[in-house]
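Support request, please re-run this one:
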Amino acid sequence: MTIVFSHNIPEEYYCEYTKDMKVIKPETELASWSQDEIMQVLPEADILITIMDYPAAREMIDAAPNLKVIGNQGSGTDKIDVAYAKEKGIAVINAPRAVIAATSEMTIALMMAACRGVVRYDRNLRKSLVMERPLYFDGDMTLYDKTLGVIGMGRIGYEVARKAYGLGMKIIYTDLYELSGERAEVLGMPEKVSMEELLSTADVVTIHMPLMESTYHLIDEEKLSLMKPTAYLINAARGPIVEEKALVKALREHRIKGAALDVHEFEPNLSEEVAELDNIVVTPHCCTNLTSERVKLLHETLDGVTAVLRGETPYNRL
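Re-run finished. Output below.
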């Protein structure tokens, strides 16, 4: 059995899973394969482990005639041709649980940073070296007693809502499914509303949906126009869910008060238009960018891969 890793990660992070396997990975520590390089090794692969946003496209799948499982060290699978893998009888595994704590925590951090002006205060104080602040200032917003609108009440969306409810926020959400029972009680029995009502009502809108054809540019100029001029938009899901051009326009014209993005439409690059804005907080798609969390993601993925090889159907098989 041969396992191919998209990146050269330290052996101690996975060796317990690969004792009886041949491991193929790039030679340089932490480096990833170029597309030409990985196409040369895929013919040997029984298992392919993709890390971060490394792709597993149709041509890669075709280059691996022995491929049984694709494992993605992350929750998103938009860079994997899942439908084609399924057609070829190849299992696709992800890590939907290990991302929850770190991503929900970072979402709250982004929300705090944007709504309370943390980044602006830090930037200005470093520049002036004098603690200047207006006596009365309307540029920021406290979160207590405000309304959080959650677009996508899945695992991460729910955990963000739980943390925000602990901060004293009222929760509303839009989703295909309705929360019930204890999960709803934990959030103060939040109301399920339409997308339009959520956008027009919430003081903070946070996105927690997968990227697919139906969610591409879900938040466009029309949707942004529904938001209150005092509202903030948070995106720690996938960049192209928000139409960047429309968001830049809304922020420039102060149609909304601010935004915070961990993900960006044109990754790995940040556009100059976004960088020039002073009413946005940006981070480099780094919610799980800690060794402890990345190892948890890898282990959840490899647990699923191992289960598939035993003939089982793990919860994290798509």
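The radius of gyration is 21 Å. The domain at 2-96+290-309 is CATH 3.40.50.720 (Rossmann fold).
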